[in-house]
Amino acid sequence: MARENWHLEKKVPITLLIIMVGNIFCGVWFASGLCSDTTNMKKQIDMIQQTLDTRGKIGEQYFTRLDRLEVRFDGFEKMQADMSDNIKTIMNRQYNDNRRVK
Prior knowledge:
single chain; mainly alpha; 86% helix; rod-shaped
């Protein structure tokens, strides 16, 4: 069996060839559009990731500041309790001194 070379016969309508070339062109165009969309989505994902990382760092800074404020506030509460005890002691002494004087 002899190997025959591929060839196009004149019986094939030109419109069929035009449609086939058009389909190939549209397929390549669609694929390039998908590639472009994918590239844009990757850029957007990277930007969103950077934004989230930045916000996370800022959030960590705020939590650190809140922790410091809590420590200071606890110190103020202890100071207030000590001052209240001191005031009560002073008032009791004055009351007792006034009772002794009368």
